[in-house]
Design a protein that fits this description.
alpha/beta, single chain, globular, FAD/NAD(P)-binding domain, 32% helix, eight-stranded mixed β-sheet, 542 residues, Glutaredoxin
């Protein structure tokens, strides 16, 4: 087919380059905010093979925000336990609960999934929004920007050239990001570089196999470390560390892979669907933004998989970025708000990368002396001593708070993820998760009547940023949320607060007693980089 002689130009609010999990989730979120989005994806269809396998309750909460949680929940499986095994075929020396089931944030704490199935939900979700246009089989060949906007040139599957113009462009195009290179941004290394072979299988029956382990397992064998993951449905994954200096061709030889699998599974009952060679890295971009070009997901960071946070971190990027884009695109906030996104997310990602590298070094040590000490001092003691295992479990399930970014930092809850219990609302007492009541913007949640003297301040905040105010009580009326489980009351009592100001991504901006509200409101407005400063609250303490 001959290339077209004309070049079409498409204008939108935001261009997203790359529609993997990060880009597709971001497109869903921006679609819900009502912005026109074009997503440019190089592949002509979904990537067929699983890569990520795990997400946590915060990520399911983001899927809830995007209106996708119900569909995703039907094709994913929650889990709780991780087993440590010292040699293939042996019983676990310890089992730790890494997926909390207390639904503190509205959902089970940990989930397995099959990535092609998950991504189908993302892409089907885009069909809800006439303002979101995915373009598949479209390779970006140039990116340029000026004071007014950004322009992407792309070649389509038929060889024709198209131009896309927008106010902002988000690079979600993976570890080898073209956008990152075009923006003049570079990766920095944490000096972690390990080769592994990932093997995906499917049972021939198309059903779960009762003979296969039900729990995630780490086989901490210094001769060859192995990770095992039971994905959702009939799908399973093994990850084998490459040993003995094998080349990629040698490590992925089907005969060798089948021999390695023989220690774990009846080969007659399974079908190998993928054998892939990966280098597990610890990398991050030196900066995530150049003007109107912003990075998210693997374009900005890559991490070892040992904490299962690679895809999760990209989805968090999308959620953190979408509400900032909304404020800037509406003209409410200045683009300086994006610098806050970079500071916030890069600090959070660096901490996770460091944690993943530490765990990886523990799991994959090849030194037999170190492995002996690890096995006895760490794993066996944790298995025998309840408080040691509980300490590990608590650490694994604790959400990492923000260390930087748009928060008031006046209360110990600043930068922490807000609770999400069930509440009741309306005259009929409809029972919903808290986020459904909070809406999609900023919200103040307060004990009933505690902010009654701050009505004028609250009204002006609502005018500035569309902030929603909700009160709760044990005995609610139609305008007040009910707290049927007592979770909100316990949360407020434990934190010594009368109100909490919650960001759209459900992180706490700040909290405090009623007499501290004006100061919190002032810090909130100052941190937003509002365009119309003259309309800020009058008479509010700085």
């Amino acid at each position: 087919m001959q290339p077209s002689t004309t070049t079409r130009t498409t204008t939108c609010d935001v261009i997203i380059v790359g529609l993997g999990p990060t880009g597709a989730v971001l497109a869903n979120l921006l679609g819900r905010y009502g912005w026109s989005v074009v997503g440019l994806e190089r592949d002509e269809d979904l990537y067929y093979a699983p890569r990520a396998v795990h997400f946590d309750d915060e990520i399911m909460r983001i899927f809830q925000f995007a209106g996708l949680a119900d569909d995703i929940g039907r094709t994913s499986e929650s889990f709780t336990d991780m087993e440590i095994i010292l040699r293939p075929g042996r019983k676990p020396v310890t089992r730790s609960r890494i997926g909390s089931q207390d639904r503190r944030y509205g959902h089970p704490g940990a989930w397995w999934f099959h990535q092609p199935t998950l991504e189908r939900h993302f892409h089907d979700g885009l069909k809800r929004y006439p303002n979101v246009t995915p373009v598949y089989g479209c390779r970006v060949t140039g990116v340029e920007q000026d004071a007014e906007g950004v322009r992407a040139t792309a070649v389509q599957r038929d060889g024709s050239e198209r131009v896309f113009q927008a106010r902002y462009l988000i690079g979600c195009d993976g570890g080898k990001s073209f956008v990152r290179r075009e923006a003049g941004l570079r990766l920095e290394s944490a000096d972690f570089d390990e080769a592994w072979v990932v093997v995906d299988i499917k049972t021939r029956s198309g059903q779960k196999d009762a003979l296969l382990p039900a729990n995630h397992s780490q086989v901490c064998n210094p001769a060859q470390p192995v990770t095992y993951v039971p994905m959702a449905g009939p799908y399973y994954e093994w990850q084998f560390m490459v040993t003995g200096g094998k080349s990629e061709r040698e490590a992925t030889d089907p005969a060798l892979v089948r021999e390695q699998l023989r220690d774990f599974v009846d080969l007659d009952k399974i079908e190998i669907t993928r054998i892939a060679y990966y280098k597990f890295h610890g990398l991050w971009a030196n900066d995530w933004r150049n003007g109107r070009i912003i990075l998210a997901g693997d374009s900005a960071h890559q991490m070892p998989p040992f904490l299962g946070q690679g895809m999760c971190s990209g989805v968090r990027d999308a959620h953190s970025l979408c509400w900032r884009l909304d404020l800037v695109l509406r003209g409410t906030a200045r683009p300086a708000l994006f610098d806050d996104y970079v500071a916030e997310r890069s600090a959070h990602v660096r901490e996770i990368i460091n944690g993943a590298m530490f765990l990886g070094n523990v799991i994959q040590t090849r030194h037999r002396g170190v492995a002996f000490l690890r096995d006895w001092l760490l794993f066996r003691i944790a298995g025998l001593v309840p408080f040691a295992n509980k300490a590990f479990t608590d650490k694994a399930n604790r959400k990492k708070p923000l260390a930087a970014g748009f928060c008031g930092w006046g209360h110990r809850l600043s930068g922490h993820l807000a609770l999400q219990p069930k509440v009741t609302r309306g005259e009929e007492g409809e029972r919903v998760l808290l986020d459904e009541a909070l809406g999609h913007g900023f919200a103040v949640l307060a004990r009933r009547g505690r902010l009654a003297s701050h009505g004028a301040v609250l009204e002006r905040l609502a005018q500035q940023v569309g902030l929603r105010v909700l009160e709760f009580a044990e005995d609610p009326d139609g305008l007040v949320l009910g707290d049927p489980t007592g979770a909100l009351q316990d949360w407020f009592d434990g934190a010594g607060m009368d109100f909490v100001l919650i960001r759209p991504d459900r992180y706490v901006f700040d909290a405090g007693r009623a007499d501290q509200f004006d100061r919190v409101a002032a810090r909130f407005l100052a941190g937003l980089s509002l365009v119309h400063h003259s309309n800020q609250l009058q008479g509010v303490a700085a």
